């Protein structure tokens, strides 16, 4: 696996793949890799002969006061995992390569980025859209893979790709979970053992609410029950909401729906989401 940190070197390597007629699948990450990321890499390996992974902890997507400084960084372990998984190229630009002095362009995707995490984390999705657009222009992938764990992020990227005419096939990969159901996340390492044990309330509350709504119970009552069980487990709840799976706005009869939540336990903010089928 080549590890590249400068843009001209990346351009040379990508031109080499293209000259050989090889399609490229791309997995953008912020590192501290776990089995969730590796599921994206495995899908990428199936999708194209060349796989590029990026690791870049993007300062622009952290709102003021968030965990940018203490975000886990595990460069050597990450690099070993990616090499063992058969990744061709690891793109790891320093901050000054991504945002040289004078960088002044911001990409704001309206609508789908505004509710939920967009409301809770001001500027977050502008930072995500801006860095993902730059990564797409740098890597020039044919296919890009994102996790459904960050469901709103996936929707924002799909919107941006459609609106800006990126010729990239964006694919979502189902959320990978620990044995007890907690979604894998780099931020899980922040959890003390007792908080990690309580955190299972998040997937459980979403599962219970989704099943209740699917069998025709009142959605608002199911959401209130989910909120109460999260609070009983020690969470401060940012939101628990049922939305239209495409627009992330008000659910539309007959259209796919999604139940999303964000909540903090002992200061660590976790997100999760599940699909909700039509009432039986
Ligand atoms: N449990 C998971 N299952 C599937 N995909 C995941 C999972 N966790 C992260 N991903 C995906 O991996 C990509 C990189 O995510 P990122 O590096 O931010 O990891 P993370 O674990 O989501 O970290 P964070 O703690 O910041 O949420 C994203 O597309 C994200 O949706
Ligand atoms: C897509 C991403 C790599 C952009 O920084 C990040 O938001 C993430 O890891 O999900
Ligand atoms: N996994 C999304 C990146 C973030 O929370 O900033």
TrEMBL record:
Pathway, per record: Cofactor biosynthesis; (R)-pantothenate biosynthesis; (R)-pantothenate from (R)-pantoate and beta-alanine: step 1/1
List of residues binding beta-alanine: 61
Alphabetic keyword roster: ATP-binding, Cytoplasm, Ligase, Nucleotide-binding, Pantothenate biosynthesis
Enzyme Commission number(s) of this protein: 6.3.2.1
Protein name, entry field: Pantothenate synthetase
Subcellular location: Cytoplasm
Gene3D superfamilies (UniProt xref): HUPs, Pantoate-beta-alanine ligase, C-terminal domain
Biological role stated in the UniProt entry: Catalyzes the condensation of pantoate with beta-alanine in an ATP-dependent reaction via a pantoyl-adenylate intermediate.
Family affiliation: Belongs to the pantothenate synthetase family.
Name of encoding gene: panC
A Gene Ontology term for the protein's cellular component: cytosol
GO biological process: pantothenate biosynthetic process
Pfam family, one: Pantoate_ligase
Matching InterPro entries: Cyt_trans-like, Pantoate_ligase, Pantoate_ligase_C, Rossmann-like_a/b/a_fold
UniProt subunit comment: Homodimer.
Reactions listed under catalytic activity: (R)-pantoate + beta-alanine + ATP = (R)-pantothenate + AMP + diphosphate + H(+)
Superkingdom as given in the UniProt entry: Bacteria
Additional remark text: The reaction proceeds by a bi uni uni bi ping pong mechanism.
Keyword ATP-binding carried by entry: yes
TM spans (from-to): none
Residues bound to (R)-pantoate: 61, 153
Molecular function terms, GO-annotated: ATP binding; pantoate-beta-alanine ligase activity
Matches recorded under SUPFAM superfamilies: Nucleotidylyl transferase
């Amino acid at each position: 696996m080549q590890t590249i940190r400068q843009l001209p070197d990346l351009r040379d390597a990508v031109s080499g793949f293209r000259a050989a007629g090889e399609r490229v699948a791309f997995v953008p990450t912020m590192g501290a890799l776990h089995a969730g990321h590796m599921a994206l890499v495995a899908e990428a390996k199936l999708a194209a002969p060349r796989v590029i992974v990026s690791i870049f902890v993007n300062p622009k997507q952290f709102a003021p006061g968030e965990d940018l400084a203490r975000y886990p960084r595990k460069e050597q372990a990450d690099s070993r995992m990616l090499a063992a998984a058969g990744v061709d190229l690891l793109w790891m630009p320093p901050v000054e390569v991504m945002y040289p002095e004078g960088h002044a362009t911001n990409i704001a995707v309206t609508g789908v980025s505004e509710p939920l995490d967009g409301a809770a984390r001001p500027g977050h999705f502008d930072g995500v859209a801006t860095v993902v657009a730059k990564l797409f222009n740098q890597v020039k992938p044919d296919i890009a893979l994102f996790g459904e764990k960050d469901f709103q992020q996936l929707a924002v990227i799909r919107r941006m790709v459609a609106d800006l005419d990126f010729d990239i096939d964006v694919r979502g990969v189902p959320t990978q979970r620990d044995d007890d159901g907690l979604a894998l996340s780099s931020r899980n390492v922040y959890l003390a053992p007792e908080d990690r044990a309580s955190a299972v309330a998040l997937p459980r509350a979403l599962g219970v609410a989704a099943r209740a709504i699917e069998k025709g119970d009142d959605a608002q009552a199911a959401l209130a029950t989910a909120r109460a069980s999260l609070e009983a487990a020690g969470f401060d709840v940012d939101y628990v909401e049922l939305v239209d799976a495409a627009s992330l706005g008000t659910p539309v009869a007959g259209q796919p729906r999604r139940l999303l939540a964000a909540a903090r336990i002992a200061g660590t903010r976790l997100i999760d989401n599940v699909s909700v089928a039509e009432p039986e």
